[in-house]
Amino acid sequence: MLRIPRHIRHFKSVLATGLVLSLPLSGVGAQVTTGSGSTVPLPVRPLKVVDVAFIDTTAHACTDFFQFATGAWLARDTIPAAYSSSGVARDMGDRNELVVRSVLDDVLARRASLPAGGTPRKLATFYGTCMDSSAAESAGLTPLRPVLSAIDGITTRAALVERVAELQTQGIDIGFRFGPEVGHHDAVHYVASIYQGGLGLPDRDYYFTKGPAADSTRRAFVDHVARLFELAGMPNGPEARSVAERVLAFETSLAAASMTRVQQRDPAATDHLLSVAQLRALAPHLAWPDYFRAVGQTTSIAQLNVGMPDFVHRVDSLVADAPLADWRAYLRYHALAEAAPWLSTPFVQENFAFTSRFTGAKALLPRWKRCLRASDALLGEALGETYVGKTFSPDARARAKAVIDDIRAAFGERLRKLSWMSDSTRTQALDKLAKMGEKVGYPERWRDYGKLQVEDGSFALNVMRANAFEWRRTINRPGAPVDTTEWSMTVPTVNAYYDPSKNEMVFPAGALSPQTFDATADDAANYGSLGGSWAGHELTHGFDDEGRHFDAHGNLRDWWTPADSLRFTQQAQLIVNQFNGFVAVDTLHVNGRLTLGENIADFGGVVTAYDALQRALARNGRPGLIEGYTPEQRYFLGYAQSWREHTRPEQLRTRVTTDPHAPARWRANAPLMNSDAFAKAFGCKPGDPMVRPPELVPHIW
User: Fold this and answer.
1) Is 408 helix (H, G, I), strand (E, B) or coil?
2) 533 secondary structure, DSSP code
3) What is the rounded CA–CA span in Å between residue 44 and residue 94?
4) Nearest to residue 659, comparing CAs of 579, 603, 586, 587?
5) 460-473, pLDDT tens digit by residue?
């Protein structure tokens, strides 16, 4: 697909195995059985959904609940050098990656005996070529030379368009992003679409923000581009820097026509269905028939969704007027930047030196982790198919699904009781809820990798081949029925998402293990974590400031009465105001408008899962105190500890601009500040920092 769904729980793409591990509740280890029958120890401390050892008993729950729930852990935590943060995501990811590594090492050891052309053999070759660091050092830039030579050979505008198309099919982000997506107004069919892209800095704002820090970042970008050019053979010094300056100027022109992330939050703002004739009128200098042919588009395209018409027009003007030398420099930089992590050490180190400005990481991840994550990103279902059948627990899947179904029922009850919503809107909201799909664990049908080419030799070339395979797999989807079985996140991912175009929630198996969920844990803990910050969160995305614009079938349609829409917007503004007041890092405040959807989802998740817990307690009976806490207290501890995170300031600064998710402290605290149930559970009083004045408390879901 062109884009992953907008609404994902923020765990920064940390890989997990897609497994529910049988980790003991006490002790320090576990083991997994590999395909060859051997067992691999997992020397890690088991995680708990609620861990009282993390609680800072010197803090007051009614002052800063995040500090209370996680402060003891924060006080002793040190972020490992290779990470931008530590916490739940790293803990779950590190544990699960040990299992994934055992699977990959096992298949690699058996590679010679595996059937040629089979998926396991391809997976072994892919991972093996990545792990072969000696080959990467010996090859240097050699794998990329044909690509660079082709770029250097661009001497006409027609050749430029064809080269742009070819590079896009190899996974290089240049100019605009083209591909299929679910139709906004016909959600049962795919439509071709075009969106903005092609920037080397994390966001368009980096090109225009004023001040010494922003100036330093742009200078560092030019230095980085120049250094890559020098490593690729351009003479050191003024020439490389002069060409790098032109790349910055070129990208600044693209950025000037790019929509901000806040602007993109309005689905209507990126909904522009055009005919091919209208596309040609918008961008007459792009030879669209030649472009479509070059990217492998063989089916007829009647219409396209041009998400950002101004951006496409800007690219067209650059195709017409920008010097071809500037285009060659721009394409050359992006080809080098895309391949750099998989080339020889000087390229790898330069790539890390630049990206670490935004992450704060102090060292590279071990090679096996980098290769493992690349395997998951590009051959995720090949990896999932190999191991999920061995280690994913059907019982845990059923228990997790029961919690999710309870959340759905509780949200329905809240809808029925909403005083501000009219019956007309309520009827359609309940219909959307009833039709909302859910996928738990893993796909029912695994991807066919029969047409994927993987070869011995350069891993950088195998990455290009894997990207080209994925491009070919989907490029001719426009007009075809939507594949409702497909997942937009791999099974080994510690994350979840809601897709408004399919009206479905998806929970990969990688998320369904402690600390998120434990089939042996008490209901209060599981409902606080899996129920509140996962299932309730994703479900509420269907009714947040973006999701509410899509109907039960995934079509972009206004099904709200004007009065209800106004009431929703007024209540949502209270959440915007609340988050605008929070400091993310240094003097930088959270952007309440950018983070609104996630903040609504967090609030909806907390209140809905709490209702579901009360239903479960009424059904199953109330336990006594567990580790000194009531069910209600353990519920809120489970919720807050699910956001346990310690993040480097460099990463926080980047996220203020780029991330629709607020920092973990505020995701834990803010919804609870608006909760009477939380105040009652911990005896908080009006005037306490964790209790907001009633007139500032939103009443949405």
Assistant:
1) helix
2) I
3) 9
4) 579
5) 999 999 999 999 99
| pTM metric for this prediction | 0.93
**Can you read off the two tokens belonging to residue 614?**
């009360």
φ and ψ at residue 592, rounded to 5 degrees: -65, -30
Residues with Cβ within 8 Å of residue 153, at least 6 apart in sequence: 159
What are φ and ψ of residue 12, in 5° steps? 55, 40
Predicted confidence (pLDDT) per residue in 109-155, tens digit: 999 999 999 999 999 999 999 999 999 999 999 999 999 999 999 99
Question: Is the four-CA dihedral 110, 111, 112, 115 of positive or negative sign?
Answer: positive
User: In angstroms, what CA-CA distances link 103 with 24, 96, 122, 266, 490?
Assistant: 21, 11, 14, 42, 16
Cβ neighbours around 416 below 10 Å, total: 11
Closest CA to 540 of 615, 607, 611: 607
Q: Which of 202, 189, 325 is nearest to 255 (CA)?
A: 202
DSSP state of 534: I
Tokens 């080809």 appear where? 335
Q: What is the DSSP letter of 510?
A: G
How far is the C-alpha of 360 from the C-alpha of 353, rounded, in Å? 10
| CB-side neighbour CA atoms (13 Å) of 24 | 11
Give the CA distances from residue 621 to residues 246, 412, 524, 624, 678, in Å, rounded to whole numbers and listed in that order: 69, 23, 12, 10, 21
| Alpha helices (runs of H) in 172-275, residue ranges in sequence order | 212-231, 238-256, 261-264
The residue ranges of DSSP E strands in 117-219, in sequence order, are 177-182, 190-195
Q: What is the 3-state secondary structure (H, E, C) of 669-681?
A: HHHHHCCHHHHHH
Question: In Å, how far are 5, 288, 397, 448, 641 from 530, measured between CA atoms?
Answer: 20, 47, 12, 31, 11
| Cα 587 off chain centre by | 26
Bridging pattern class, strands 504-508 and 437-441: parallel
Q: CA torsion angle for 83, 89, 95, 96 (degrees, to 10)?
A: -110
Tokens of 435: 């039709």
Q: How far apart are CA 560 and CA 571, in angstroms?
A: 15
Question: pLDDT, tens digit, for every residue of 479-516?
Answer: 999 999 999 998 888 999 999 999 999 999 889 989 99
- pLDDT category of residue 96 using cuts at 50, 70 and 90: confident
Q: Which two tokens stand for residue 46?
A: 């088991």
Structure token digits, residue 539: 């479900």
- Please tell me the predicted confidence (pLDDT) of residue 307: 98
pLDDT in tens, 76-91: 999 999 999 999 999 9
Cβ-contact 313, 285 below 8 angstroms: no
Structure-block tokens of residue 303: 């219409």
Q: Which residues contact 439 (CB under 8 A, 6 or more apart)?
A: 487, 504, 505, 506, 507
Token pair 């004007």 is found at: 562
What distance in Å separates the CA atoms of residue 447 and residue 427, rounded to the nearest whole number? 38
Residue with tokens 């007027």: 321
How many helices (H) and strands (E) the chain has is answered by: 26, 14
Pull the structure tokens for residue 143. Answer: 């794998």
User: Smallest Cα–Cα separation from 335: which of 129, 173, 158?
Assistant: 173
Q: Indicate the pLDDT class of residue 393, thresholds 50, 70 and 90.
A: confident
Q: Mind listing the pLDDT tens digit for each residue in 631-666?
A: 999 999 999 999 999 999 999 999 999 999 999 999
Q: Could you give the C-alpha distances from 309 to 106, 192, 312, 501, in angstroms and in order?
A: 49, 14, 5, 21
Distance CA 679, CA 688 (A): 9
d(C-alpha 554, C-alpha 501), whole Å: 4
The residues near 696 (Cβ < 8 Å, ≥ 6 apart) are 574, 577, 578
Residue 45 to residue 32: CA distance in whole angstroms: 15
Fill in the amino acid letter for 382. Answer: A
